[in-house]
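Problem 12. The chain below contains 110 residues. Write out its predicted structure in token notation.
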Amino acid sequence: PSDEAGTAADGKPATSGAPVRSDANAAVATALKMALEPARDIEIRKSAAASIAFIAGRALEREQPLEAPDLVEALIDVANDQQTIMRQAAAFALGLFRSPEATHQLQVML
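Solution.
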């Protein structure tokens, strides 16, 4: 059971266990995808990948895996980047998604 604020009796946010896109609304996803583009400064790109990982990780903690195929696709592109740090950041973020595409890319990267 949860109260009006969506908090369960144990004090944690009430969850249904279903995948959601709560943290990655369309505007945020679009901005993060743009920030991952190769023409952007490397620090901006790293921060974007870290932000995606943070959002996906929070969703997993709530037992509501993030469903964001557009972000997974962008991370797959980054996983083939010339910069090692970007490939590493993409791999970390992809590991926090539960999509077949993310899993496949991680297997390819092994």
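Discussion. The radius of gyration is 15 Å. Students who got a different answer should revisit the alignment rule from Section 12.3.
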